[in-house]
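Ribokinase: structure, please.
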Amino acid sequence: MIKIACVGIAVQDRIYYVNDIPKVNGKFVANDYKEIGGGPAATAAVAIAKLGAKVDFIGRVGDDGAGQVILSELANYGVNTSLIKVYANARSSQSAILVDKHGERLIINYPSPDLLSDTKWLDDIDFSSYDVILADVRWPEGTEYCFKKAKQLNIPTVLDADVTPQDIKPLVSLSSHAAFSEPGLLKMTAQDEVAVALKQAQKSTKGQVYVTLGDKGCLWLEEANQYWHKGFKVDVVDTTGAGDVFHGAFAFALANGYSINKVVEFACAVAALKCTKAGGRAGIPSIKQVNEFLTERQK
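Here you go.
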């Protein structure tokens, strides 16, 4: 069985469901509320586990109540949590999320400053056992460490290249597959047009670059040629975590030796199915459900 490492942040999400995301000050009432785990790399790890692969999450949490819930939920989904660093007397990262009636969301993340950026403890991990290493950009020091290890071991890497205060070009340059969010791509390249920005991003790495475009699908480059896979049409309930799930499914398909076109198609399908249920993880499908979905779409 393939084995994948997911490196980055784990977050406790508090999701409020409203008719519309407020655009003015005031008090508002939510229609529903959920408290679940989140974070790009952590949710990607859950997707990989639900698809049927072995997956280790490598990240940091505090020893507070939120950290305990984060660890418990990941373990319940089948993610190996033994490589997570738990900091004493520390707060875990948390997010408040508003989801409107169309499934679109607004996220306010609190990246806990109690979780140190130190990577020395990663020296004890045997990275040679992984088929693919996926990482987000929210713990850049950890991602850089793990991607350098991957390069030494000739292991493919997938970067969830989203918006973050730090310059992500050094991480993009280390990755073999940099999959950007649209805002992340435009911010890094200082461009305002996606196709131009993608070509600009390609100059930062010897690997391949991609950009996810929500329900419009995914655009990517291969040897200077541009390709596009349109998004799958589904009844959207909640888009929270869709990008994270895309990256997890991408890493899963890559580890299984799919062609790049099939990797993107598979990742788009998994992300679309996730959006059919509330929350960032409840809608993540099994491999059987994905294959049935793709077979039905090909008829």
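Notes: The chain is about 35% helix and 25% strand.
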